[in-house]
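So, read this over?
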Amino acid sequence: MDGEIIGGLINSISRFIHLVACQTTKNASLEDFRKIVGILKLLKPVLDEAIDSELALDEHLMKDLEEFDVAVNEARELIEKGSQRTSKIYNNSLKLFLIQEQLKAVLEFGLFLIQEQLKAVLEFDSIPKQL
């Protein structure tokens, strides 16, 4: 299940990045989304590594990743529908929410990976060394 959730988030991020890259208009709203793409591009390899390592993620982190997936999809849908139909307040609120979700997911995921690495080091150090 962890792999499905992370895989879905990776797919959502890839679709969002592709959609923003294909936009040809030059408006302030899309420039903000392009900045978000820069952050998502940094997060994507971390998520790829998480799938490859097959780490067991805790329930709280999985919930956060699911919420982040929803936020990325909402942002993509906003761009697909066209910002001319949405208010600037809603558009800016969604961008702020997406950035908050990104930061929250990155921080929690990073902490989780650090904890897992520390566990592995401690387990390795506790193994009796025999020559």
